Structures are given as C-alpha cells and as structure tokens.
Amino acid sequence: MKFNYFSILAAFMLLFTSCSDELETENIQEKAQAVNYDEIQVLNGRLYFPNKSIFQSYYAELREKNENDLAELLQRKFYSKDFYSLKPIVNEQTEEVEVSRHLAKIKSKSNKNGLQQKTSSTNEDLLENFDDLEDIFGEDVFTSFLNQDAELQVKDKVYKYTDTGLFIADAKEVKSLNTYLEKKQISKNLLEPTPEATKLAYIEENNPCGGLQQVQNFEYFIAEVDNAPCSGGGSTGGGSSGGSSGSGSSSSSGTPNAQLAIISNGLDQCSGAKPWLGNLFGTTKVCIDQYESKKRVKIKYYNIDIFLGYVIGIKTKHQKKGWTGLWRKQDTDEVALGVNSLTWKFTHPTPAAALLNYQPARIYLHNGKMFETVNGYYNSVFAGNIPVPNLPFANKVDFIIEVAIGAPLSPFNDEEDVREFIYEQLFNTAKGLLQSHSNRQLKKMGVVVTTQTSTWVQFYDFSESCTNCDKRENIIDFGIVTPQITYNFGTGSGGSFSISSWNFNFNNPSLTGMSAFGMAKRNGQWHGKRMVF
C-alpha cells in the first residue's frame, strides 16, 4: 500500500534552487586567481587550453557568469579573433552580428565536412539545430567552447566530438583523423548526421561497452553503455559540487513554496524528450512549454560525461526567440525549479545479508555530528563525530539519511516507494536534529537506502525560487573525471556490518528516476512543465 504523503509534499517537497552558494562561488574565484588564462587562445580555428586544469577552472568560472556577460566575453576574447562556436552565445548587442557571421560560416563550408550537407538548409533549420546541439552536451557553455567542427584542443591533443562518439588525436594527426572518419563514413560535423546503420555498426565493432578505447592511432570514447555485458569500469575520482545558480536576483518576496506546489500540480506532465541526434555522452531529457509565438520555458535534466569533465544537473530557463531566430534566455518575473527527488539505483553484485546486524538508520549532519535511530526510526541518539559520507553532492546537503533494510525481499518497487518511506519514517526526525544541533534551516538533503540487493541514492533540494531572473539551475556534481565513487556504508557502526563499501558510478546506474517541475511567471501567468521519468 502506498503511503499517503502528498500533503507532506505540498508543504515540504518544493525544491527551488537558490542563488549561487556564496562559499562555492568564492572557491571558484580563488582557483581562478591562481590560474593564468592568458594562454587560452584561438589556435587553428579551435579554442586552445594549455592543460586540463586550466580548462576545468575556466569552464567552471564561465558557468557562473550571466548570459549578457558571457556573450560579451566570448565576442571580445574569441569571436573577434575569427573563432566560430558550435552554438554561439549572444545577447541583444551581439546577436545580429554573431548569428549572421556563424550562419554564413556554416553555409560556406557546405559539402566540405559532412556526408549529407544540404546547401538548401534554411537559416531556420540551422537555428533549430543550434538549439538541439546544446542538449547533446547538457549545457551551453561547453557547446560554445567547441568550434563548428565540434573540436577543441587541450595541450597537444585535439578532442573531436561526433554523433558516433569522441575521437582524440595528437594535434599533428588531425588530418589523418579526418581521413579515417571519411573512410568509415562518419560525419565530421554534428549538424550532419551519420547514417544510423553506419553509426551502430561502428560502435558495435569498436566500443560496444563504452569507455575509452584505442582505434588505430586515435582514442575513441563514448559514455558507458547501460546493462552492457562487460566487465571493468571507468576512471575513478571525485568532482566538485557546483551548487545552485541563476541569472538574476533571488528574493524572499517570491511566491510561497506551498502555493508554488499547488500551481505546479496544474502543469502538463512529460517524460522528457531526447536530443534528435541521440546522446553517446550520457543522458539528456528536455521538456518545453512554448507560449505566445516567441517565448518558452525549458526544463532539462542532464548527466553528461564529455571525457574532459562531467556534469550532473537540472535547470529551468525562460527564453525568448530573438529576431534572428535564435533562442536565448530572457529575464522574467519569477523562475522556479522544483525537484521532488532525483534518484539513482545501484544493484549489488552479491546480496548484503549482514544488513540484519545494522542499526535501522543513521543521520549525518553537515557539521560532522552523526546520530543513530533506536527502537525503530523515531528515537535517535548521538553516535559520535563522523563526516558526511562520500557522495557527489556531499558538501551541498544539510544532512544525509542512511538506512539499511535487512528483509530478504525489498519493500521498494520504485523511487516513489523510497521517497514515501523517507517522508513517512525519517524526514521529521532528521529535520528536528538539524534544527536543534545546528540552528540551520533545511535546504538540501541526501538519502541512501540499502537493501540486500540494491542501493537507492536520492537528492532533495528545499531552496527558493528567483525573481527578475532567467533561469534556475542546480548542478548536482561537476568535475574533471567520471563520477565514480567508493561509498563506505555504515562507517563506525557498532554492528557487524561485513560489507564496508560499494563502487557507484553515477553516470551508469541501474536506474535513474526524477520527479520535478520547472516554470516561469510572466505578466501574472505561470508557464512550464512537470518532468517525471
């Protein structure tokens, strides 16, 4: 039987991303001060970064900029030096010049880079393709770093992104790579698709399981394939949580959370469309609510591994179609992003029978205090000073709830069951501990629920909406390597919990589910979508 928790959701499950976390923004700024960006330049038509560290730092810094400042920077630093982005970022001042310049460059390259270039493509067709390209890579900053051949250079390596995957070549071997792609009939231009049969046959022959493989003198990468019959895994390491961000100002005078919950219930629901080219670099799902002729609200979930880095996040943005036909962000009265839960499921290779000896639940506060529940889930005792467990969003949450279910059969059929269980059994206990031991308002929490056969990991956010802004974005994790972690379950437990850790790859879980909404208010009317998958 389902728990009756919808009344609780109306009051609490409003996950509206706040303004940029000041501490995280300061960390990015401190890193930027120690890095010399003067060596970033346009080289042979590509953006050149002297090393991966500078690439990551510059990427993180530009992600924090609002679109007007970003458009001005790109125009001054790169576009004025004959660089052409795969998808240009523009503002009102640069739109006319840069959109026209970029479209003219695309048309001038007809019949040179692709397999099926159509000289009859209209500006409207190309602009729609621009919109789809952003969805392949999850967000627009990285897309703007790529040139129109979807290339950039880091040190002495050129990274070329195609609809068949990423190819990495020494800078002096780029001509050989292009010859190789032509021989294999793989398109060298993301605006021109490789025939589906050709693409699938190449992947099956050269990289059926995903990851990084050697093909001739080049390296070839696609994201790991779900449920592939392959052993081994990707590189390990961690990232830096990027935090919540938005362009514009946040204000407590926005619509109250409870009222936003009611409004969101009236939104149409969608499961999220995939990019028209598919996505070999991870998962992207998009819902769009277009209103009037040139305005829309776009909500997007993305979990992308571009090899040079990865990003997991969700965002809502309000956009206006400029006179050139390019969609760009536009300030509006209010923008809200609500995430009831974002869920990853990881299946255990062997049953975890020792869960029977583990305490029912643990609550790790952000300040290092850890509590264990006794006699069920409603009473808790202080168990020591233990850091928050290792998760991609560990440094963003106010607390993490860790639960062990020792029953032979799991009581959870899906992520909704897990969400209901947390709200019914543990939410109020954890919230009370946070208030009494840190005097801190709950904004974000994490959940880890382990059964004998699987582990469910969830992220919740209880922040506010923004006013006079154009987007709300919550970057769950952002880093330079694949988000594969070793999770130490039950650290410091007094029980005889024999399994101490599992490896979780957040780019390749057994299941990912989400319940969220994105909406924007303009002239007193709300527009948006509920995304459920």
**Alpha-beta classification:** alpha+beta
Number of helical stretches of at least 4 residues: 12
The first-to-last residue Cα distance is 21 Å
Mean pLDDT: 79
Query: How many β-strand stretches?
Result: 27
Helical content band? 10-25%
Q: Assess the beta-strand content as a share of residues.
A: 25-35%
Major beta sheet, specifics? 12 strands, mixed
- Shape summary: globular
Unreliable runs, pLDDT <50, ≥5 residues?
Answer: 1-33, 113-120, 231-242, 492-499
Oligomer: single chain
- Computed CA radius of gyration, to the nearest angstrom: 24 Å
Secondary structure elements and pairings:
Layout: H1 6-12, H2 22-33, E1 41-43, E2 46-49, H3 52-63, H4 67-77, H5 95-108, H6 123-137, H7 140-145, E3 151-154, E4 157-162, E5 165-170, H8 174-183, H9 196-206, E6 211-215, E7 218-222, E8 243-245, E9 248-249, H10 257-264, E10 269-270, E11 282-291, E12 295-305, E13 310-321, E14 327-329, E15 332-347, E16 361-365, E17 369-374, E18 379-385, E19 399-404, H11 415-425, H12 427-438, E20 444-450, E21 454-461, E22 466-469, E23 471-479, E24 484-488, E25 501-505, E26 511-522, E27 525-532
Parallel strand pairs: 2-3, 10-27, 19-20
Antiparallel strand pairs: 1-2, 3-4, 4-5, 5-7, 6-7, 8-23, 9-22, 11-12, 12-13, 13-14, 13-23, 15-21, 15-22, 15-26, 16-17, 16-19, 17-18, 20-21, 24-25, 26-27
Helix pairs in contact: 1-10, 2-3
